[in-house]
UniProtKB/TrEMBL annotation, chain A:
Identification of the protein by name: Unannotated protein
Protein keywords: Amino-acid transport, Cell membrane, Membrane, Transmembrane, Transmembrane helix, Transport
Cellular localisation: Cell membrane
Family affiliation: Belongs to the binding-protein-dependent transport system permease family. LivHM subfamily.
UniProt GO BP: amino acid transport
InterPro entries with a match to the protein in the record: ABC_transp_permease, BCAA_transport_permease
Lineage: unclassified sequences, metagenomes, ecological metagenomes
UniProtKB/TrEMBL annotation, chain B:
GO biological process, one term: L-amino acid transport
Organism (species): freshwater metagenome
This protein's name: Unannotated protein
Family, similarity comment: Belongs to the ABC transporter superfamily.
Keyword vocabulary terms for this entry: Amino-acid transport, ATP-binding, Nucleotide-binding, Transport
Automatic annotation (TrEMBL), chain C:
Keywords, sorted A to Z: Cell membrane, Membrane, Transmembrane, Transmembrane helix
Gene Ontology MF terms: branched-chain amino acid transmembrane transporter activity
Protein name (database record): Unannotated protein
Recorded topology in the membrane: Multi-pass membrane protein
Claim: Transmembrane is one of the keywords in the record: yes
Originating organism: freshwater metagenome
Residues that span the membrane, as ranges: 22-40, 47-66, 72-89, 96-118, 124-141, 187-205, 235-254, 266-294, 314-339
Amino acid sequence: MRDFLQILLVGIGDGAVYAMLGLGLVVIYRSTGLLNFAQGEMAMFSTFIVWTMWSLGLPMWLAILGGMAGGFCVGALVHQVAVRPVGDPHEKPLAVVIVTIGLFLGLNGAAQLIWGTLDRSMPPLFGRGQVTVFGVAVAWQKIGAVIVLGVMVLLFYLLFQHTKLGLAMRAVASNSESASLVGIPVPRLLMLGWGLAAAVGTVAGVFIAPNLGLGTNLMQLTLIFGFAAITLGGFDSLVGAVVGGFVVGALSSVMPRYITIFEKMPLAPAFILILAVLLFRPEGLFGKKQVTRV
Amino acid sequence: MSSAGDGVSSAGDGVSSAGDGVSSAGDGVSSAGHLLEVKTLGAGYGIVEVLFGVDLVVDPGEVVVVLGANGAGKTTTLRAISGMIAATGQVKFLGESVLGRRPDQLAKRGIAHVPQGRGTVTALTVEENLRIGAYVRSDDQIESDIQQWFEAFPRLGERKDQLAGSMSGGEQQMLAIARALMSRPKLLLLDEPSLGLAPLVTHEVFDRLREISASTGTAVLLVEQNANLALEFAARAYVLEAGRIVLSGNSADLQGDAAIQKAYLGV
Amino acid sequence: MSATATTGASAHRSPGDWALKVAPWVVLFVILAIVPFQFPSFRVEQFCFWMTLAIAACGLNLLTGYNGQISVGHGALFGIGAYTTGILITEFGVPLFGATVASAVLCFATGILIGLPALRIKGLYLALVTLAVATLFPLLLEQFSAITGGSGGLQITSPQLYRGEMRERPIRLESPVAGLENDQWKYFVFLGITVVIFILSRNLIKSRVGRSLVAVRDNEVAAESSGIPVSQVKIVTFGLSAAIAGIGGSLFALDQGQLYPSSFTIVLSIYILVAVVVGGAASIIGPAIGAVFYGLFSDVIVQQMPDRIQPARAVILGVLLILLMLLAPGGIVGGFRTLQAKWSARRSSALNSGPDPIV
């Protein structure tokens, strides 16, 4: 039982990170109706920016802020030069998906060019210490991830529900034509959405890098977990991303432990989850039922 | 080419004498200062041309209707004016050429467009729809304006926390108009507000519009298929046929002219 | 099967036009026939790899170009084809090309399975499933290392007569023709299979089934209302597309003789997609052109670059994908068609020299 609890807590800590990446995916989905396959690579790129600043001697928190700012710029730029000119994702999903795949390749290659192909090491943000709760050891890093996720969700909630900007972003997501008719500069807000998503991804990357080692394939697995999280939660739901993140984290931590066939594939439960949700409840747990629109 | 045969009168003579309840709300209309001036407007979708040189003017505070059958280019005219589609020709708003501007830039200048069908943002609540309508404003009267709308339309007030998408067609149309007016526009573009509404509801919507326009002095450019209703409401009218203005004049004159009614309005 | 339609149309053409249409193909086949004799062995080996890629791209094109479903997971299907072939030959002693057929069948079934969500979901969501498949596949290979060899690789062997006794030896495609080296023989075998697959795909697309593929892509609702079983069409297309990718993978296995999980990551899936998009989605020959382009790029051009900037290859391909989507969504073939249309329009207007018929 204690063993189970231990694994579960590890999973929840991981889940917080998946949820962070999921938040970024939801923000982009909500504003553009697009599944951003380059989200993970954007996060990887900006995590390298964090690493660079940190290795130049900046304190970690400042490096993270810098990385988020850098990530924001990358996201905004990517939207302006690559995504926006292709056109409306609702009309040309194929073209836009291919563009995000192009971004995936491009960002990955660019990171290899700039930072090389060797993994870098990054210290855990909350140290390597542990705390024992009910006889179960939990790393501060995992607790920190849950807390940071909480803060991010709160900030997003405030942004979307209590600011004019957030209201405008929601209007753009729901009906971009009406939004532009009331005077909202739609392209600029979409750019902002991409920037925000990338900035959030930075934080996810900072939490993952100490475990996996910071390399250019840092986020490729994590992205699938993030997608599993938002598939379960609903592509357009921030709350769904969080709940989904925790469930996916817990499942992929617990199941490989008890089911030998998943031993080397913590990804498999996530994959089965994606398939099952898409087949039986495509809108997810918290999403609005609009997934099947043509 | 634009021999928009001035059937009844030329487009220059401003506001009609009240006649059917439309007052000009005390605006002194100058002959030079049109609010909106559209010349040889051409537009289309892809390679399909829809408009072939539309000319029309709207003066401050004036209520004008563009009539025409399905496919005549009414909606396209409004979409071209508010910058939603690319267009050629000339569009002047407050003396400034605005052709090629994006819709949000025009909204900032004072044009509010209620598009055809549901112009509401369905995923936002009623109150949020009104608030987003005031996006271009930064004064401190937004809250009191919202309250005024709730008083004027208790049904909106009762449902202020409900999603706009969950309301009936008439309520959504009313909300769309209210949302447009929240920006305190100088010109309101209305695209077939009667579409899909029961006749009774349509009448109510038009009654409200008339009151609002009169009290705020907002000019209205309306496109409608329902000619009789629109002519009662508007002071002046244009008739659009196959992408061209073929007729214009005071509503009262157009209403009285049986030949015109038969030929263009399909009554 | 589409012969009746084409002869009917070409009856109106003049012999000159006919020659113009056939000549490029004759030239192409002559070039393809000469190529293995003009290049060193390692190049011919590379050409063989390009052909396996072209086959996979042809399969993906059926799905993405003609049916409008996107897959970011064809690398995994390619891999399933490769490993099925390898395992069948090594473990069960199946003859080489028998294994290819079995791989195609298995990939067809897998494709149907992956395509199942298409019953409920559309567009982007299917892409998501395939992305997950592509990411999962190399991990699966490691998980089941008992039969796949895991990251140590799978050596494909078959019992062969060696110094008078039967032994497990690495597979080889021996040339039965005197005067043809082994690699040249392999080249022609692969070329034959590739050509057959492309011709079969062409016939499929020109058939009634092919038209229903396109109808589903262009407008599902309209297709549905005109009696096309949309879900079935989508799923079967996925299966077919997967089977073709599997054949590509199977040939890859025969070509390489050894398989490693690292060859079948998400990146392979993306490169297959690159071949389709660059060559021209929704054109039969496009994926082949795209595969040759990709081969030239990664096996010839990139090799000239210094090691330090090798990753630039991904950047260039990524940027190329984006630029193509922005500037020439039809890829190389689409661009060529546009030029051709412009040219023939100019020629016909010069001939008529009258006023423009339209406007």
